[in-house]
Amino acid sequence: MAGRSDDKNLESRREYLERSHVGKWVRDSLSKIIANRPEDPIQFLASYFESIREKGNRVVRAHQVLVLTHHSRLAFEDNVATAYQILSTPSSSKHSFGLTGSAYKELLRTILRFVPETIEDDVMKKISPRDHEFIPLDVFHHGILTAFVLKDFLQQSEGLHACLDSQSNGQVPQILCEAVLQELKESVTTTSTEPISILQAGARLNEAQILGCLEEAETEAKSSLTGSMSSDEFIRHASDIFLEKVKPIR
Questions:
Q1: For 118-164, what is each residue's pLDDT tens digit?
Q2: Hey, which bits of the chain come out as E strands?
Q3: Domain that residue 163 falls in
Q4: Taken in order 105, 111, 117, 123, is the CA torsion positive or negative?
Q5: CA atoms within 13 A of residue 152's CA, in its CB half-sphere
Q6: Inside any domain, residue 144
């Protein structure tokens, strides 16, 4: 019994270390010490963890500024510039002015923290830089706007699936979902790669278009066996459509 209790406690400690990111920071700090071999390892560690604290505080402040207004409003442009300034300002005279990829990626993940992990990983592959790279304002703006627009696009997609869910059981005939997704893809394909244009294309799916493709799909469904698609699956397919149009930063 005592052994099982100890195992449980050890597991919970590991979970805590990963959840709080402490485990990652400790591993990173040890890797940096080995790579740099500083003469004063204690001072090196103190500076390293101080930079994490400062960066974390700045990311929180930048995120607070960005969520003050919706991305569709003019004031959002000023908020993006302010957030960029917050993250670019050095924490001390020892650091140079400018935004690095690591802080930028941390902000993106903060914005996307409620997005499904697989979708978050896919969008980060498109818009996130290397940790050491300098991030100019236009790249910062593109990535931040993409992250916020993606969240709205996924909400739209969830709403579309709910409209198709006539039985209110979370499942919709696959052929109906595929018909609407195809309509969505065709609508998005004709737009530019600007994130807001992709969102507007999805919103332009009008009732007549949806009803038309549903009628065709229902007719086809009656003559063939078809599976079903959950909301999560539908959103995943919709996100793929969105990401196909997003311009990668490299």
A1: 999 999 999 988 888 899 999 999 999 999 999 998 998 898 888 88
A2: 171-173, 228-230
A3: 156-245
A4: negative
A5: 18
A6: yes
